[in-house]
Amino acid sequence: MENFNPRLFFIFRVTESFDMPKYTMVIALLLIDLGILFFLISSFQDGKLASPTALIPAIIGLPILIMSVLAKKMPERRSLFMHISVALAIVCILGGVMGVQSLMKGDLGLSTIEQLILLILGIDYTINSSKSFIYARKQRSRHNTDKP
Question: What predicted TM-score, i.e. pTM, was given to this entire model?
Fold first, then answer.
């Protein structure tokens, strides 16, 4: 059975060997980097330690990263780990919606920008995962009908 190849940020087609667990790892690392980067930027900007809420993307990204590693190590449980990752991505979307609300109020601070990036990453991952699940289900049904 061939793998689904996600499109990074809805546009960029990646190589053939780039499967969903690898894509999940990229998204997780982006979330971790996002949280750490904005935590450091806001700490330097204010001159004091930033609020730990700036690390929320990193806190969400860490379990997603763990799920991607487990999906690679235990392919028979891959579906479970990918579904857990999508549930966490939905948390990203919910957190990112706060950025839209802040933007509509005219706030364009660091937290709003971080929340909007969180929203984009969450939507991108959820859409690609949904397409992957649909693709896998079609492949399974096609594989089952090919058997005598």
Answer: 0.85
